[in-house]
């Protein structure tokens, strides 16, 4: 259970003890802030497992960087900022990984890493389809042939009478569009979720 928020003076005294290597002081800080930080991150990632992991990372970061705690004006604001940044970075990483795996999916029933549930896969595929719809026509055609028909670069080049170099460039462009679109939409959903739950 959260304890009352400390005064600035109490906070600085506690941070000084942590800076000096007092593990009990860190425990005290966790008792006061852990649940608050967890709930804040949970609103961002909408996953208790991820929120717990990121919350623990926040306090590990505090302990590992305790020598620099004297530079922090407000530990609460600093933890929320650190947690938000970690959440965004993790979601970017997960989204990019899912997108990379989607490039090589041969059909819509392919299991992404065996870790993503059917509903979540549907969300990812929807984001991918929206991104594909935004691609220039030739770029879109080449990407779809690669993804849905599993054609090699050489086969695509033959079909459209293009050079291998052109096909590779178009695929590279399509992957960049896909990655940018998915990350932007994910960050928008994070921000919307955060603001709507305030």
TrEMBL record:
Stretches assigned to the RNA polymerase sigma factor 70 region 4 type domain: 128-174
NCBIfam families attached here? Sig70_bacteroi1, sigma70-ECF
Instruction: Kindly indicate whether the keyword Amino-acid biosynthesis belongs to this entry.
Output: no
Q: Where is the RNA polymerase sigma-70 region domain?
A: 29-93
What SUPFAM superfamilies is this protein classified in? Sigma2 domain of RNA polymerase sigma factors (SSF88946), Sigma3 and sigma4 domains of RNA polymerase sigma factors (SSF88659)
Domain of life here?
A: Bacteria
Q: Which GO terms describe its biological process?
A: DNA-templated transcription initiation
The terms under GO molecular function for this entry are:
DNA binding; sigma factor activity
Give the protein's recorded name.
Answer: RNA polymerase, sigma-24 subunit, ECF subfamily
Give the record's keywords alphabetically: Sigma factor, Transcription, Transcription regulation
Family under the similarity heading: Belongs to the sigma-70 factor family. ECF subfamily.
**InterPro entries with a match to the protein in the record:** RNA_pol_sigma-70-like, RNA_pol_sigma-70_dom, RNA_pol_sigma70_bacteroid, RNA_pol_sigma70_r2, RNA_pol_sigma70_r4_t2, RNA_pol_sigma_r2, RNA_pol_sigma_r3/r4-like, WH-like_DNA-bd_sf
Q: Is Nucleotide-binding included in the keywords of this UniProt record? A: no
Could you list the residue ranges forming a coiled coil in this record? none
